[in-house]
Write a structure and sequence with these properties.
The protein contains 17 helices and no strands. The longest helix has 33 residues. It is globular and about 55 Å long. The N and C termini lie close together (6 Å).
């Protein structure tokens, strides 16, 4: 049998604050390394050709996706059998921090391209696997009637954390005339490379309270070898018997679509803004900052809504709003209306993602949170190529980025329709127990 979750869920505000602070810590990696600064530096500075650099970066991210899809449910199932999650989270966090710091040695020369991609693959895979164990620790932290608000607080804090690190990286390192207050030069783009050290320090420092204050699940006493064998057997049985977990299966499919829609818009939103509305790089940076602020406030504002009316209604409201803002966004011509509608759209990114996490926690059978969040990661990766593929095909077929974005809005409609078939457990209702 799987381990029983910790009996005494804590209401200690320090533990809850430390759990949320981990979101603040880890978001710096996604924002600075994989999205805004180092990815651009790799293409322009290291490879020296944006097209070739983007292609190589994309290939590395594809490899990351495959590894994450394969490893996340397996490791989640193993951790469930072992009981404790902190050692796994600590290990993957440490690997991400070290691999991020190693990017400092990636000089602006094609000779260092392999080093850059190797470090990014290791860091990205470790980052995503760490988040499997981080998310899976939520059900044991607070009672079910508080899952929504804590998930929302964490997600909102994550947006603000990534944004704060990005602003610091841009204005203290990248764009400053005297980087790091004159302590750092610009030779070999040292000011840009140093942002990787900033991310490593940021991640490691702000993640530390989690390991000091958040309680862990009790250890089962099983040796690691036994946990591996039993975890793999349990995962195989779960996959074969997913029909037993009908609501989980329906939700995994539904959430994969709307999560992919959100990911695609965040990945291609800058390209859409630049290509369709002629926004400059400075405008896109300001747009990204504003979008993150709106998403963060949205996640926090809807945190209580989740607990009051349920995660499923919160997701449905968010998807309705995303579609409602997304359709006119495809039609407007003026930049002012683009800003207004895009920021309205961004406000509901956070609630959809935070409520998505809390619903997965509610649907997870006792003692199987790690395995279920591993499958949550797997399904997201399994369809993660559909959004970018649809965007690219529609853009090419109609010679219009508006057509590309229209295809992405369809993912919200599909996600909404599939979510209608999901039944959220009542607050006092237990999820079905795993088979013996």
């Amino acid at each position: 049998m799987p381990p029983t979750p910790a009996a005494g869920r804590t209401s200690d505000w320090r533990a809850i604050a430390a759990w949320c602070l981990y979101d603040w810590a880890c978001s710096a990696y996604n924002t600075v390394i994989t999205t805004f600064i180092f990815a651009v530096y790799f293409a322009r500075g290291v490879v020296g050709d944006e097209v070739s650099g983007a292609a190589r970066w994309s290939a590395a991210m594809t490899l990351c996706g495959l590894l994450i899809a394969l490893l996340s449910p397996v490791l989640g199932a193993i951790a469930d059998r072992n009981g404790r999650r902190k050692p796994w989270l600590a290990g993957f966090t440490a690997v991400t921090v070290v691999a991020s710091a190693l990017l400092w040695w990636v000089r602006p020369t094609p000779d260092d391209a392999f080093l850059a991609l190797a470090c990014v693959v290791v860091a990205t895979v470790s980052f995503e696997l760490a988040n499997v164990f981080y998310n899976a620790s939520l059900p044991g932290l607070v009672p079910k009637d508080r899952l929504g608000r804590v998930s929302g607080w964490g997600w909102g804090l994550g947006y603000f954390g990534g944004l704060s690190c990005l602003v610091l990286a841009l204005f203290v390192f990248v764009q400053a005339e005297a980087p790091l207050f004159g302590l750092l030069g610009k030779e070999d783009q040292a000011n840009v490379r140093a942002t990787s050290l900033l991310v490593a320090a940021w991640y490691g420092l702000f993640a530390l309270p989690y390991f000091l204050l958040v309680p862990d699940e009790p250890a089962t006493g099983r040796p690691l070898g036994a946990s591996v064998r039993e975890g793999l057997a349990t995962l195989r049985r779960t996959v074969l018997e997913l029909r037993r977990y009908k609501q989980v299966l329906r939700y995994l499919i539904a959430s994969a679509f709307f999560r992919d829609g959100i990911s695609t818009i965040t990945a291609f939103g800058g390209l859409f803004a630049a290509g369709t509305f002629g926004m400059s790089f400075q405008e896109i940076v300001l747009f990204a900052i504003a979008l993150n602020v709106c998403a963060g406030f949205g996640a926090v504002a809807f945190a209580w809504v989740d607990d009051r009316i349920g995660a499923k209604p919160t997701i449905l409201i968010s998807l309705t709003a995303l579609t409602g803002f997304g359709v006119p966004l495809l039609l407007v011509e003026e930049k002012l209306w683009f800003w207004i509608l895009a920021l309205g759209l961004g406000t509901f990114f956070g609630p959809a993602q935070a409520a998505g996490r809390s619903l997965m926690a509610r649907l997870s059978p006792p003692g199987m949170a790690g395995e279920m969040f591993g499958l949550y990661s797997l399904t997201g990766r399994a369809v993660g190529f559909l959004g970018p593929l649809a965007f690219g095909l529609a853009t090419q077929a109609f010679s219009s980025q508006r057509a590309g974005m229209a295809s992405v809005v369809a993912f919200f409609v599909i996600g909404f329709a599939l979510m209608l078939t999901v039944r959220e457990p009542a607050r006092a209702e237990a999820a079905p127990s795993p088979p013996p």
